[in-house]
Amino acid sequence: GIAEGLKIVYGNARERMREDPLRALRACRFAAKIDGKLEPKTRKAIKDLGHLVDMVSVERRQQELTKMLLGKNPDIALRLVGELGLLPYLFLDLVPSMGCTQPPHHKEDCWEHALQTLKSAKRVDLPLRLSCLLHDIAKPACRKEVEKDRFIFYNHDILGEKMVRKALTDLRFSNETIDKVSEYTRYHMRPLLYSFHMKDPALQRLIGALRNITIRDLIRFMLCDVRGNMTNKGKGFSFTLELARPVMQRVRRIEKE
Prior knowledge:
two-stranded antiparallel ribbon; 59% helix; mainly alpha; 2 strands
């Protein structure tokens, strides 16, 4: 498996890339299974010839991305994809996230936040992991400076839903997956983990509005989003449990009633 995935390392790396450019993405996936490192000649060949990935069919690219997301260390694999200039051939609209700062509530830029959120998704679930990667895709387009070094991203959840739907449609994902990721993106800004901000009728409406994911799915995703915020680094797992416990108690009570 690993040897086959990294066969680009052996022989002439540039020739292997020209034979099948998909090997660039495959190398990222298999490198993530080991230590996240690529042999220098292979790395250079991918950076020089990565544009050839655009010649690979959309279906094959999507299959390789799916394997990355459902495999070991998907965040490391996607970090390599970004470093090697391959992200435009998967999600062009995600490229502006690199270097898009978002202080004061986040220490990390939008791209790093996406990777950290993806890293937090321990459950092997394709829509969940795609949502971790894509939920803030519209932030660069919605970024507005309101005062020095303070930015807002108004309506990035609404625009993000449209951008996610288009990006996943272009990559030929199933309608079920597209609907779920779109819904995660649309509702990810609701103050659900801070349930004292939501009155019971608002929480009931949110539960009723979800069509493709459950309220528990949304809570699980939101916890990944919180853990992906580097400002919270060091607070530990108990911090997110403290956020989840009250809202779950309220959800169970509303369901019972």
